[in-house]
Amino acid sequence: MGTGNDNNKPKMAGKQSIIFQNPPFIIEASSIAGKKEGEGPLGSMFDLVHEDPMVGKNNWEEAESELMKQAVDKVLQKAGLQNSDIRYLFGGDLLGQLIATSFGIAQTGIATFGIYGACSTMGEAMTLGAIMVEGGYADKVIAVTSSHFAGAEKQFRFPLDYGNQRPYSATWTVTGSGAVIISDKDDADRGNDAKVVITGVTTGKLVDYGIKDPMNMGAAMAPAACETIRQNFTDMGVGPDHYDKIITGDLGYVGKNILIDLLRENGYDIANNHMDCGIEVFNKDEQDTHAGGSGCGCSAITFASFIMNQLRSRTLKRVLFVPTGALLSQVSYNEGNTIPCIAHAVIVEAM
């Protein structure tokens, strides 16, 4: 696949993928995390860890908005840019009507696209941002997402005061926000570090296997991840070994095993190079998160810290980043509907 200019190379690949002729750069990334996330294996890599889950605010929703505001402020600071240097912002979260995003970035003055892909939102935001930059419609965009454990439990499951027991299939919604700046060029002197580019994307489609249990998101989302990864292999004419890592968003331990089995049924074995952000962000034996982490912030803070570090150091040279989302709501759950899911894949390379 590679990078660089090739005007004869088609932009459309297969049925659902795009290859960028002029791959846009990820010039900077930021990660803001909560206390539990900071106590996990990636804690030292986050830009900021909050000990207070309320982040100094009056309620969980305001706290999540503050996390997103800080992620945007931090990524701009690290890049040495101002709000006015960003043409568009693509942002989303799990709360109804995207209120974490709306209130979190309201004062930035940046033209904004609010998007919803549940926990796949970071993949969707990076996809749309990269298309906008590579197409010449923007020079710099921000992709940002957030989630908050208490806010998600309150909206989708049970308020914390209820004290319900969580089954072992349940994942723990990450409290955090991650942001990246996608640019048409990277003039920074990186020294020995690699420059990071987005070379292609595969947009997912809705997959519904009839699962209704909101406490088993891994099982619900794994088929969508399988479909997008399989389509990426087909569209790009590659196999699992093309990527150093295939990184799903928040399948957790339950979903990871299902995904590997489903892809094996399709003739692909990713067991040796698969990684899941929901597994990486928490310590299974010490933090009691059951099946692992989830939420919009899960893949966002993992990508913006650990994965970007691995790409910058060339420990990883090419990854397929596949955030996964369960598209349920309070209304659909209470009406007894199934959980349709989606996954969006972004090809990220060290250049």
Plain-language structure description:
The protein has helices spanning 35-38, 60-79, 99-104, 121-134, 149-156, 217-236, 252-265, 277-280, 284-287, 296-312, 330-334, and strands at residues 12-13, 17-19, 25-34, 48-50, 88-92, 111-114, 140-147, 172-173, 176-183, 196-202, 245-248, 274-276, 293-294, 318-322, 324-326, 341-343, 345-350. By secondary structure, it is an alpha/beta fold. It has 2 domains: 24-183, Peroxisomal Thiolase, Chain A, domain 1; 196-350, Stage V sporulation protein AD (Peroxisomal Thiolase, Chain A, domain 1), CATH 3.40.47. Strands 1, 2, 3, 4, 5, 6, 7, 9, 10, 11, 12, 14 and 17 form a 13-stranded mixed sheet that branches. Helix 6 crosses helix 7 (252-265). It starts with 11 loop residues before the first strand and ends with a strand.
Short account of what is shown:
By secondary structure, this protein is of the alpha/beta class.
Helix and strand layout, with pairings?
Layout: E1 12-13, E2 17-19, E3 25-34, H1 35-38, E4 48-50, H2 60-79, E5 88-92, H3 99-104, E6 111-114, H4 121-134, E7 140-147, H5 149-156, E8 172-173, E9 176-183, E10 196-202, H6 217-236, E11 245-248, H7 252-265, E12 274-276, H8 277-280, H9 284-287, E13 293-294, H10 296-312, E14 318-322, E15 324-326, H11 330-334, E16 341-343, E17 345-350
Parallel strand pairs: 3-4, 5-6, 5-7, 8-13, 11-12, 11-14
Antiparallel strand pairs: 1-2, 2-10, 3-9, 3-10, 7-9, 10-17, 14-17, 15-16
Helix pairs in contact: 6-7
